[in-house]
Structure formats: structure tokens, C-alpha cells
Amino acid sequence: MRARARPHTQARIAAQESNGDYPVADESHRTCIEAVLTRHVYEAVQEETRMGASLLRLHFHDCFVHGCDASILLDEENGEKFSPGNKDSVRGYELVDIMKESITSQCRVQISCADILALAARAGVQAVSPPHRMPIWNVTIGRYDSKYSYANLTGALPGTDEPMDKLMQKFADQSITDVKEFIALIGGGHTIGLNHCGFAKRRLYGNDTTNLYSDPEYITFLEHMCPETQSVQHDAEVSIALDNKTMNIFDNGFFASLHKGRVGIKSDQLLGDPNNPSEIRAAVELFTDNEDAFLEAFSAGMETMGNNGILGSDEGEIRAECRHPNGNYR
Ligand code: HEM
């Protein structure tokens, strides 16, 4: 049942009205949409390389919670955005707002926030990929946005302390059932970007068995960066590379780091566990030696993930502003 509209600011009413005059974006608008969006993403990455990684993670964390419906963007109190796993960790929201405004005014279309997240993740990855070695996957245009935020479903996000079978199940629950896609998505996601000390510390100062197959020198480096006695504030402020080797370049470097026992978070190092099922060990070996195979599996995985739980016009809406639903639906 649709409830009374919440009070809107003048700006929001204006945005909604002008937005509503334009046609809903579809394939025929792709050239303009991609031109405007790509320019913004490349400019942002030039200013801060990490933004490529942040846009990829934003899409991933959206897609794992009630599908790729931009529900993560809603500024709802106690909503998804402010749940553990997202709060003070996922970033890129301001850039999404800017892209929404630019595409709407320059292409004169109603573009969904879900379309923007999916296209921006691809542009973000490509912006940090070496030319001629970038992953390419299809992103459909014409998705709709959710009307709600789903904080109650954020348990679907994978956790760094979870065992391999649980992690695989969580990906399978989001329709990623192919082991190669599962491994390539984690390796691709974590070949760029940063993680906070809080995550590294979880494995450093316990009796963590993953440290058995880590490089002792690297463990010493992590301990130096993230001392046990440091405050929670320090752990939230200090970040280290997820892929110690080439953190600013999208490549198969994660797997070389994994082999050397030099990846930051526990679930990543777990991919190198010699006791893993043979199909996992085979995929890790393949991607270490063969970058083309990695790029192919990552691209396939992104397409699978990016099509997860897409909404149509009957279930969603095209938000006028990515941070707010168009009405007060609760
Ligand atoms: C086992 C599954 C996964 C776990 C447990 C996991 C966990 C994490 C954690 C703890 C961080 C650091 C967050 C922080 O310090 O604030 C992180 C960062 C990141 N993750 Fe994952 N992740 C997983 C899979 C993925 C996948 C599938 C992707 C994308 C395809 C991805 C992309 C990223 C990116 C790009 C970053 C860095 C973001 C930035 O620097 O802004 N992750 N992940």
C-alpha cells in the first residue's frame, strides 16, 4: 500500500519533476549515458586511484543484499548503508549522486541508480586496468531501483572469518555457482583497494591457522602496521593494501601475492589453504599462471553477479535522487 508522501525539499520536488519529464533510459540512450558516466569515473580515478576499487565494492555490496537494486544507496536511518559491513567502509556515494545529476541533465533520461552502480563498477575496474588487458562484460540498461532498504538482509554479505564452504554457499545464494567465477570475483575484487587494520588484526593476534601458510615477513609487516595495542580509532583510520604487490592495478597479481602468503585478510589467505577442495586449488593455480583465464572468469562472474535480482518497472521505480525513495512507502 502506498502511504502519504514524506515531506520533500524544494530541490527534491524539482529533481523529481524534471526527471519525470524524460523517458526512462534504455539501450537507445547507452552512448550518451556511458560517455558521461565514464568521464566522471575516469576523472575521479585520476584524482584518487582507489575510487575504481570503491565503485566495484559498492556494486558488489548492493547486489548481495536483495539484488542489484541500489538499495544500498538509501540514506535510511538504520538501513543497509549503516549496517555492519557497509558503515564507515563502503564508499563512492557522492560520486554516484554527481553521475546521476549529470546523466539526467546531459542525456535527458531517467536513469536508475541501479544502472549507474552497475555501469560505474565496470568503468571503475577498467579505469585501473592496463590498456588491452581489461575485463569486459555486458551491463544491461533499464534496471529499476528498490523502494526499500534491506538492513535485515545484510547477513548475506560474506565475512572475513567465515569458512570456505560457508563463503561458497553465500555466493551460490546470489546465483554465483561456478567455482571459477567465485574465486575470480574475490581475487579480482581484492587485487585493488584497501582494508582497515581492524580486519588484519583479526588474524594476527589469535591462534589463526591461516597464518601458518603466510609469509612470516609479511605477518611482521602487518603487525607493524596494525599493532595489537592500538586503539579502535587507529584500526578504523589505518588501511593497508589488499594486494600487497600491485594494489592500484587490476590484474591477476592477487594470486601471486596469495601464493607468497602476502594477502591481508583472513578469507583471502584461506584461498591458499592446501586443504581446500581440488576445484578451488585448480582455479587458484590457473589464475596465477594465466591472466586471460582470470579476466574471462572475472568478467563472467561480474555479469552473473550484476544480473542478480534486477527489478522491473512492476517492482521498482526510477528514483529521482539515489539517496531517497520517491515516496514514503513504509
Ligand atoms: C569472501 C568474500 C569477501 C570478503 C570476506 C570481503 C571482505 C572485504 C573486506 C573486509 C574489505 C575491507 C573493508 C574495509 O577495510 O573497510 C574488502 C574490501 C574490498 N572488497 Fe571485498 N570481500 C569479499 C569479496 C569481494 C568481492 C566478490 C568483490 C568484488 C567483486 C570485492 C571487492 C572489494 C574491493 C574492491 C575492496 C576495496 C574497496 C576500497 O578500497 O574502497 N570483495 N572486502
From TrEMBL:
It is found in: Secreted. Binds 1 heme b (iron(II)-protoporphyrin IX) group per subunit. Keywords: Calcium, Disulfide bond, Heme, Hydrogen peroxide, Iron, Metal-binding, Oxidoreductase, Peroxidase, Secreted. The record marks R57 as: Transition state stabilizer. GO terms for biological process: hydrogen peroxide catabolic process; response to oxidative stress. It catalyses: 2 a phenolic donor + H2O2 = 2 a phenolic radical donor + 2 H2O. Substrate binds at P158. Heme b binds at H190. Signal peptide: none annotated. The active site is at H61. Ca(2+) 2 binds at T191, D243, T246, D251. Pfam families: peroxidase. Its EC number is 1.11.1.7. Residues 1-23 are annotated as: Disordered. Disulfide bonds join C32-C107, C63-C68, C113-C322, C197-C226. Its main location: secreted. Removal of H(2)O(2), oxidation of toxic reductants, biosynthesis and degradation of lignin, suberization, auxin catabolism, response to environmental stresses such as wounding, pathogen attack and oxidative stress. Belongs to the peroxidase family. Classical plant (class III) peroxidase subfamily. PANTHER family: PEROXIDASE, PEROXIDASE 72-RELATED. This is Peroxidase.
